[in-house]
TrEMBL record:
Residues 66-161 form the Rieske domain. GO terms for biological process: execution phase of apoptosis. This is AIFM3 factor. GO terms for molecular function: 2 iron, 2 sulfur cluster binding; metal ion binding; oxidoreductase activity, acting on NAD(P)H. Keywords: 2Fe-2S, FAD, Flavoprotein, Iron, Iron-sulfur, Metal-binding, Oxidoreductase. It comes from the Eukaryota. The lineage of its organism: Eukaryota, Metazoa, Chordata, Craniata, Vertebrata.
């Protein structure tokens, strides 16, 4: 045994400067209206705080104080999870100073103590979200909330923390937000900001505008029937219901006056008259526009493609239906894409059989290279997934209108009760063809580092754009990842408010299959060599993609 003397450290919740000034603004504790300029006109707005981020000092009974360590227990650059009795905090020492923040990443609850501390930021070990240790603010994505920040003080070489019990339990903080000042004054068919698309890019754009004090009308529209949800879970956790994967509850949108029009499709954009024309004929004028429509999955072009029980997974209903149909039945997945492979992994234990059809010789070859692709393929094969490589589907056969068999060009016939198609996607930008907005030959919207299109006041973000990637010498790239969509939305919002902010984020993606997680940072398109460190067979490795 190693004997360690008992020592004390305290952590205290600090109200961020912005919040403290809110308290001091008026004697009743309510913020007096501030003034924010939109389109050159002064407007009033009230800052509001989401309930989970309320001032911890309103209720003294909510405050806990604990001692956690001696000042010499932590070296510079070290982090430690400390228990305050009713919850934990992350204690950090950097450049001789102590900081304390929430210990769990608000995205999926990863322990941040296992993350990386560098230059005043802690990065989540699971999906790369990044938080400022001084403020707790989220600075890189995925996720929407920041960390609660607790105050640390040193007395007699002991470190003390004082914290709100509520903040210790929730482990998240929503930034302060403005509200719309007078929704009743607006014409239903006009808005200051119109956001087409309600994925991560659209939602982060709307939230960032409110966080920055924007108090005019914001309308989001989506073809989906649901409020924004965590789309990556559709293929990773297929039986999730819409309310389980909602990014924000209904009340959030009401509280901050972010209007969401569901099942509304934009058919055209008239840039001259700053108007979006909807499929049902409804028109909406805008001052600033964000196009964040994402992509549309490619369909099969073979004979019998219209038979029942063939799915592209686009909605929670699609995913739920596939799980129901696949349980103890035969599944064929077309395309060893991220979606196809994640669906195969999810259904492997539930279905009677899972067959995967792919044109390439190994999965992920273009993305991860042949060696990594083969190692992943081997893991799938050991989990009862059967591969049919270097072939494609020639026919879908039905019995009484429902799928019965999948016929391959190789002549092989596979029994199939359900088929999932994951053969790639195209940008959902067809409605912009005659708009004058610059679209490249593949259908992607071309934007600059500020997410601006060639049309003033029109921005685009997410899977449907190409943008200059700083780490590849500003090469125009398309990065259809969840993390990048968040950052695009944030950059677009800041530049709608004329902040002059350029994107410089490193792309990051993750996939999870059979309990193994593959994480990928950077943009390795065009690599000609892969350097492997570690053990590929055990799937404990790092791969470097070089050129």
């Amino acid at each position: 045994f190693l004997f360690v003397p008992a020592v004390e450290v305290k952590i205290e919740v600090v109200i961020p400067e912005k919040e403290r000034s809110k308290e001091e603004m008026s004697p009743n504790g309510k913020a007096s209206p501030l003034i924010y300029k939109v389109n050159g006109t002064a407007r009033h707005y009230h800052l509001e705080e989401h309930p989970i981020a309320s001032n911890p000092y309103h209720n003294p009974k909510d405050v806990v104080e604990a001692s956690v360590c001696h000042v010499k227990d932590l070296e510079n650059g070290q982090m430690r999870e400390v228990d305050l009795g009713c919850g934990k905090a992350l204690l950090i020492k950097e450049s001789g100073e102590f900081h304390a923040v929430g210990h769990k990443c608000p995205h999926y609850g990863a322990p941040l103590v296992k993350g990386v501390l560098s230059k005043g930021r802690v990065r989540c070990p699971w999906h790369g979200a990044c938080f400022n240790i001084g403020t707790g603010d989220i600075e890189d994505f995925p996720g929407l909330d920041s960390l609660p920040r607790f105050q640390v003080k040193i007395e007699k070489d002991k470190v003390y923390i004082r914290a709100s019990k509520q903040a210790l339990q929730t482990q998240r903080r929503t930034k302060m937000m403005a509200k719309c000042i007078s929704l009743s004054n607006y014409n239903l068919s006009s808005t200051n900001v119109l956001i087409i698309g309600a994925g991560a890019a659209g939602l982060v754009c709307a939230e960032t505008l409110r966080q920055e004090g924007f108090s005019d009308r914001i309308v989001m529209c989506t073809m989906d029937r649901h409020l924004p949800y965590d789309r990556p879970k559709l293929s990773k956790s297929m039986d999730s219901h819409p309310e389980q994967i909602a990014l924000r509850p209904k009340e959030f949108f009401r509280s901050y006056d972010i209007e969401v029009l569901t099942e509304m499709q934009v058919a055209a954009v008239d840039i001259k008259n700053k108007t979006a024309v909807f499929k049902d004929g409804f028109k909406m004028e805008y001052n600033k526009l964000l196009i964040a429509t994402g992509n549309t999955p490619k369909a099969l072009s073979c004979k019998g493609k219209e038979v029942e029980n063939v799915f592209n997974i686009r909605t929670p209903e699609d995913a739920n239906r596939v799980v129901k149909l696949a349980t103890s039945k035969n599944v064929v997945i077309v395309g060893a894409s991220f979606l196809g492979m994640e669906v195969a992994a999810y259904l492997a234990e539930r279905a009677h059989s899972v067959s995967l059809v792919e044109l390439e010789e190994v999965p992920f070859k273009k993305f991860f290279g042949e060696r990594v692709g083969r190692a992943v393929m081997k893991m799938f094969e050991s989990n009862r997934v059967k591969f049919y490589m270097q072939t494609e589907v020639s026919e879908l056969r039905e019995q009484e209108g429902k799928l019965k068999e999948v016929v391959l060009k190789s002549g092989k016939v596979l029994r199939a009760d359900v088929c999932v198609v994951g053969v790639g996607a195209v940008p959902a930008t067809g409605f912009l063809k005659q708009s004058g907005i610059n679209i490249d030959s593949k259908g992607f919207i071309v934007v600059n580092k500020m997410m601006q299109t060639n049309i003033p006041g029109v921005f685009a973000a997410g899977d449907a754009v190409t943008f200059p990637l700083a780490l590849r010498n500003n090469k125009k790239v398309n990065v259809p990842h969840w993390q990048m969509a968040h950052m695009h939305g944030r950059i677009a919002a800041l530049n709608m408010l004329a902040h002059g902010m350029e994107i410089s984020t490193v792309p990051y993606l993750w996939t999870a299959m059979f309990g193994k997680s593959i994480r990928y940072a950077g943009h390795g398109e065009g690599f000609d060599d892969v350097v492997i460190q570690g053990d590929l067979d055990e799937l404990k490795f790092v791969a470097f993609y070089t050129k």
